[in-house]
């Protein structure tokens, strides 16, 4: 029986993936559920296991190449019958969610004679970085010497533009190409939020990391309820603006692999403490490469915290197909005129980018004004939880 193992449609509009690395080669005998290949999608990296015992008779594109949904990625012959069976990776992905991992660096297989390897050592050349020009990537003395000359002349390092970084680039390019992006910024007083956050930390009996982010999430949700067109997406094919009834808030998270956006599902049903716990959990899993595919799906509005690193102003890019994204910049002390007195207050600039095809400046200005009111009167957010 021959299995034509295809890359399945895993949803969220994902139509292709990048082959990160192969764990097998033609002729290898594999067992069912043995890892075959690692595929990088737009959302996460998926390790696909074998659907059956058998011998690998054909493998798909090399590492770094793109494979389309529906394309055969590996052929396995179990030797039992002489007929083709098309096997999809979809069920494997759904069942083996624990196999979702983040790309890890692994040295490539080096094909070179001992003399070539010795030459590389003598010349101070890292042979792992030399591209072989002979059959199957075999490295020759000429390859080592040429690399040595290029390294001296250029004094540069090259990093392969692939994996999560390339996926992020493709997603941002899609947003830039399709979305008519506009931008607006508002300065907001955060002093009362700071005081309430510190008070909750002191009185809480739970061991949680309470940051400013849960307060922003709560303020955004309340403001989205009065501006429903912002909690939406644009279905260009059907020419519909799709208003989302749940508030699934994506939290842009900086990781070693690049920017990931885990999503707090139905955030409108969760209190400050629950949101804080979920943000901490999703952030930790994102940084460790432990997010599941569903953790990154279904977002309706995204928040990115630039200020956590130190930026005082920024222009975020809309997380397509959403229609708006909020950037939180650095919260800092500023001397201002407040209620007739010159005082130092905690202040922050909020930047909101939006799709001008769906929203107008007035829509966004009202939305930001609502967020400002919520954050300047944060006790009202706590009252929401009691109703």
Profile the largest sheet.
8 strands, mixed
- CATH 2nd-level architecture of the largest domain: 2-Layer Sandwich
In CATH, what is the class of the largest domain?
Alpha Beta
Distance between the termini: 61 Å
SSE string, helices as H and strands as E: EEEEEEEEEHEHHHEHHEEEEEHEEEEHH
The total count of strands amounts to: 20
> Which structural class do you get from the secondary structure elements?
alpha+beta
Count of separate DSSP helical elements? 9
Low-confidence stretches: 90-107
Word description of this protein:
This protein is of the alpha+beta class and 387 residues long. The chain folds into three domains: 2-101, OB fold (Dihydrolipoamide Acetyltransferase, E2P) (Beta Barrel), CATH 2.40.50.100; 114-154, E3-binding domain (Dihydrolipoamide Transferase, Irregular), CATH 4.10.320.10; 177-386, 2-Layer Sandwich (Chloramphenicol Acetyltransferase), CATH 3.30.559.10. Helix content is 29%, strand content 28%. The chain is built from nine helices and 20 strands. The strands form four sheets. Strands 11, 14, 15, 16, 17, 18, 19 and 20 form an eight-stranded mixed beta sheet that branches. Strands 3-6-8-1-9 form a five-stranded mixed beta sheet. α6 crosses α8. The longest helix has 17 residues, at 272-288.
